[in-house]
From TrEMBL:
It holds the Pfam family SLT_2. The keyword Signal applies. Coiled coil: none annotated. This is Lytic murein transglycosylase. It comes from the Bacteria. GO terms for biological process: peptidoglycan catabolic process. The keyword Cell membrane does not apply. Residues 1-25 form the signal peptide. Keywords: Signal. GO terms for molecular function: peptidoglycan lytic transglycosylase activity. Residues 32-336 form the Transglycosylase SLT domain.
Length: 404
């Protein structure tokens, strides 16, 4: 016990030695050093991080108080308020043709450049190369986006004064394990302001679980290796249940006789049953033979005010990467456009402006009426959309499953 106390005291002293360029201590620097010494170091040591790694990576570290969403030391400050004045925008803003037209050529070039490697990745993990490239595009513009932050500093700051302190403490320890393992140097360990790292934007714990060394250089490098980046994305999706041989979904014409209140993965049925109800692909082609008897579900990101889709299980595997319908639809649509660069055939119709606060108030009212809206967060997921539709039908209206 005495030896352990001496080690902690030594580390606390070493952490107090600031680099020469930081002559003026910040408001929280002393508390931050105490937090590292008392909360992070023991947990990291228990997780197998060596004292030399801790000394090297934590010495002189200061919190970055410019990061968004911080609440104060110990997470005890007032949480950021829900922005009740923020304008609510329809999903159409995610799907501007200019975005896809900018990304498609780069994806096609990479598909040619890495043709043989992508084929090996697809064979090993079962994930189509176009899906891999589309996620890579969305996360970092195929590695072209700036990833400006020191990941260790971001994660330590969020563990010290963020809203999810325990979560980010775990991610900080994972980042220290990455550095100890030697996959990347501290200089290269860059992240977003939220702690997501490298070209595929993995959190450190995801890196430890899913990053792979596919180029055979002995390091899992999602910062500068295009090959490791692509393979790591594929491994992530495979480990989250990607169904080999199935697509993500299909744009369809949904007749008015099929209610939008039937949306959602918990309402899956064989695609053949949707066809029997009059659902057709917008392309005019039949559903592929290998899909027709497989399960699918209705997907209406903007209710009746936007394009309609039949989604497969793989749409929701993409959502494991980012819990957003619009994110997963962006990825699936971009993947399709590597082949034929065509926009959705269904229109995003003009929609009534509202606010996130107004949506939250509507969700609270719907919850009060017994609907499951998936949480009153001001965002319109499929449970909120179909609850709106049920309420509309109950009151004698045609269900649009959207606000307005």
């Amino acid at each position: 016990m005495i030896a352990k106390a001496l080690r902690l005291a030594t580390l606390a002293l070493s952490l107090s030695i600031l680099p020469s360029g930081l002559a003026i201590a910040g408001q929280y620097d002393q508390q931050f050093r105490q937090f590292l010494a008392s909360a992070v170091v023991p947990a990291a040591r228990q997780a197998g991080v060596s004292q030399s790694t801790l000394d090297r990576e934590l010495r002189g570290l200061t919190p970055d108080t410019s990061l968004p969403g911080l609440v104060g030391p110990g997470g005890k400050g007032a949480p950021p308020k829900v922005n009740f004045q923020a304008e609510f925008r329809s999903p159409a803003r995610y799907f501007r043709n200019s975005q896809f037209n900018a990304l498609v050529p780069g994806g096609r070039r990479l598909m040619q450049k890495h043709a043989s490697t992508l084929q090996m990745i697809e064979t090993r993990y079962g994930v189509p190369k176009r899906i891999i490239l589309a996620i890579w595009a969305r996360e970092s513009g195929y590695g072209g986006a700036k990833i400006p932050h020191d990941a260790v500093r971001v994660l330590a700051t969020r563990a010290f004064m963020g809203q999810r302190a325990d979560f980010f403490k775990g991610e900080l320890i994972a980042a220290l394990q990455i550095l100890q393992n030697g996959d990347v140097s501290r200089k290269t360990l860059r992240s977003s302001w939220g702690g997501a790292m490298g070209q595929p934007q993995f959190l450190p714990s995801s890196f430890l679980k899913y990053a792979v060394d596919f180029d055979g250089d002995g390091r899992r490098n999602i910062w500068t290796s295009e090959v490791d980046t692509m393979a790591s994305i594929a491994n992530y999706l495979a480990k989250h249940g990607w169904v080999n041989g199935r697509d993500w979904g299909y744009e369809v014409r949904l007749p008015n006789t099929v209610s939008c209140t039937r949306e959602g993965p918990d309402n899956r049925q064989p695609i053949s049953k949707f066809v029997a109800e009059g659902v057709t692909r917008v392309s005019g082609r039949p559903f592929p033979n290998h899909e027709i008897n497989q399960p699918g579900n209705i997907l209406l990101p903007a209710g009746r005010y936007g394009p309609a889709f039949i989604a497969t299980e793989n749409f929701y595997v993409i959502k494991e990467y980012n819990e957003s319908d619009t994110y997963a639809l962006f990825v699936g649509h971009l993947a399709d456009r590597y082949g034929s660069n065509k926009s959705f055939m269904g229109d995003w119709k003009p929609m009534k402006d509202t606010t996130r606060g107004a949506v939250r108030n509507l969700q609270l009212r719907l919850e009060g009426d017994g609907h499951d809206v998936g949480g009153a967060d001001g965002l319109i997921g499929f449970k909120t959309r179909r609850s709106i539709g049920v309420d509309q039908e109950k009151n004698g209206f045609f269900a649009t499953c959207w606000v307005g």
